[in-house]
Fold:
Amino acid sequence: MALRLEKIEKSKISGVDFSNLKFGEVFTDHMFECDFENGAWQTPKIRPYQPLTFDPSAKVFHYGQAVFEGMKAYKDAHNDIWLFRPDQNQKRINISAERLDMPAFPKEYFFEGLNTLLKLDSDWVQKGEGLALYVRPFIIATENCVNASSSNKYKFMIICSPVQSYFAGDVRVVFADKYSRAANGGVGFAKAAGNYAASFYPTKLAANEGYQQVVWTDAASHEFLEEAGTMNVFFRVNDTLLTAPTSDRILDGVTRKSVIQVAEDEGINVEVRDVRVSEIVEAARKGELLEMFGAGTAVVINPVLGFSHQDESFELPNVENSYAALIKKRITDIQRNLAEDKFGWRLKVE
Ligand SMILES: Cc1ncc(COP(=O)(O)O)c(C=O)c1O
Structure:
């Protein structure tokens, strides 16, 4: 694959305080970019990270034809860099793209671009607990035309942002009973930009009440628990772990499927089935709801301390032998090359 490479003259890394990073605010020296024109992806290039220039009529600004991905790279004690299940992100961006009527980005281009970029910016992948490089591939519609129809031009990009141990703080959630994130036949399963835009307002309303996240319920009845802002959700009732099946409303999370596999490997009973709001409320009343947690790339596993539903609020107990803690450790040890890669999930950047 021909890849055009333009390197920076001087790295900006010395000006970055890696001990004081806010998530997603600082970007590395280079970016990967490939344009789709005349029905084909053109020669990809890597060039210094910089602003882009677009015509105000570019379709992405008007119709939100945009999809993205999120993954992380980790550096181990030997300075090797590892990605966690990147094949899943590569497949998923094309699943999202298809639903938004955008062209698939070729797998060879994706991995060649990703590897070259990570090798070039390898100093930005810092070693140590919690430190990682967040990798953001995305595709946007770039045709200059405000006709409400699919674009005939697109741009695929990968940008990278160093991140540090992400402590989300205490998280309490609201079970949605008015607003919805996704509907049957809609785009909930896609990582489409508009899904996130639509979730911000209800999330702000929840924040005004002191809750950090909304757990979305099914749009038709609000009776079934689906997923949180950027995480799939798990419930531990006694010693059983429950999570909703993926559907056209729910993102097929990489962390979610890894949690299920690790939990089963630990001998934990996992039930992937519709989870009723009423059964979780009932379990909480009886003291049988022992844990609730979100699973997603940014935090891996984020324990939830309490939730509210309609006018009631509940606090979760402090459990010993937390499933969340056990599963998080097993996954992060695999991600950072601190444990055997039993499931073949790591990919070395070389
Ligand atoms: C809506 C939504 N659900 C779930 C997830 C978790 O997916 P993953 O584990 O692949 O990061 C994400 C984040 O990517 C998300 O945006």
User: Anything to note?
Assistant: The longest strand covers residues 132-141. The chain has a mean pLDDT of 96. The two ends are 16 Å apart (CA to CA).
